[in-house]
Amino acid sequence: SQAALQFSLLLPARATTVHKQWIPNTNFETASNWDQGRIPCARDVVHFQKNKVISVFVGSPHALTDMYLPLNGELVLASGAGFAAFDGSWDPGCDPGAAVRFSDAEQQEWFDPTLWQPVPTGGEPELSGSIFSVDEERVPCWYDDVIFQPDTSFRVSTDSVQPEIRVRSISLMGQRLSSPEAWAGYLRGPSAPLRFHGNASLRVLGTGCPQRSGCACGNAPDGHRICAALLRAAGGQCPAPACPSPLTPLGHCCGVCGATINLDFTPDFDLQKYQDRLVQALLRQPEYRGVKMAMSKVHREQPFLGEAPRSSTPLIQIVLIDDGAGAQTGTAAKQMAESIMEDIAQHGEALGILSGKMEVATGSTSSGQLGSHMSSRVTAGTVLGILFSLLFLGGILFLYRKGRLR
């Protein structure tokens, strides 16, 4: 294991940008978009809500008895698609016909993590289930590429506490818009207000994270929206954890069992290289087969002298969970966290890690342990700095009392 940790220092870093794809659509041929749970057929009367703005992609020809259109919307027809009046001929499976209504897409929100999925970018498929994101990072971060599937229409609310939502690029209808100018051109077209609505504007930056230590996602101000959406999908409350004292990682909505490690780092720290290092040396090993890992830069709010205003300190957060059950819940994650801490003790300085603090929650009653490590160089420097400060202050006080300092 130690040899693997040393070897992985030579691995090239992968790009930190992630592709995140919007899942729902407003396509005519998507059965779940209709209240009958099926695509309208020839004897049906199709209803779009009069006052609902909508964009609908139509991929094939359809015969219908009647269709009521909205006051503001669009039908995007693929090549060969279209509508014709029902001629009264027999249509199997469509007798006697019904009123079929298009579902309301107004409530589909940008900050709903359940409506996004990561898109593989040529990485290792066997590890795709072992790397996850905390809830705030399941929604596109400012350095991510956003994908709306080709040949689909959609309707998404961009309501936010922030005035704008930033992303690296947006792909829609098979075209990638990766510059502010290209995105501005799309916004001037007729389809943009039919597909995007809300109080925040979307902004395409065209650039990714420039820092080797990674960048914070930027979704923390809308964390309450993200958690509210997850809780709605979960029935209103977080799942009951299997450990008595669950952990709550930064950027995550519900408590988890396992382990977290917070790293303080230097400018030499490389987030992606370090993740590759842990994947190669630990996550690939059979004893950690059921462990999942999330790693990212987050910001920890700290009070200034115990009062507001508050300062924000960047740190690297590692979250480890596993598939253990009962008393074994979190055990494998804890063992992997201990291995990471041992590696930091030996190689932290070379990796650009100043210190690491570990917290554990398992299914056993001994959970909630807290461990930490700080390199001897940093510890010694801190102690000497404190002693020097005390001597300096003592000297000033001595001179003041002797009357030599006014």
Automatic annotation (TrEMBL):
<dbReference type="GO" id="GO:0030139">
    <property type="term" value="C:endocytic vesicle"/>
</dbReference>
<keyword id="KW-0813">Transport</keyword>
<keyword id="KW-0653">Protein transport</keyword>
<dbReference type="GO" id="GO:0016324">
    <property type="term" value="C:apical plasma membrane"/>
</dbReference>
<keyword id="KW-1003">Cell membrane</keyword>
<dbReference type="GO" id="GO:0015031">
    <property type="term" value="P:protein transport"/>
</dbReference>
<feature type="transmembrane region" description="Helical">
    <location>
        <begin position="378"/>
        <end position="400"/>
    </location>
</feature>
<keyword id="KW-0812">Transmembrane</keyword>
<dbReference type="GO" id="GO:0006898">
    <property type="term" value="P:receptor-mediated endocytosis"/>
</dbReference>
<keyword id="KW-1133">Transmembrane helix</keyword>
<dbReference type="InterPro" id="IPR026112">
    <property type="entry name" value="AMN"/>
</dbReference>
<keyword id="KW-0472">Membrane</keyword>
<keyword id="KW-0732">Signal</keyword>
<dbReference type="Pfam" id="PF14828">
    <property type="entry name" value="Amnionless"/>
</dbReference>
<protein>
    <recommendedName>
        <fullName>Protein amnionless</fullName>
    </recommendedName>
</protein>
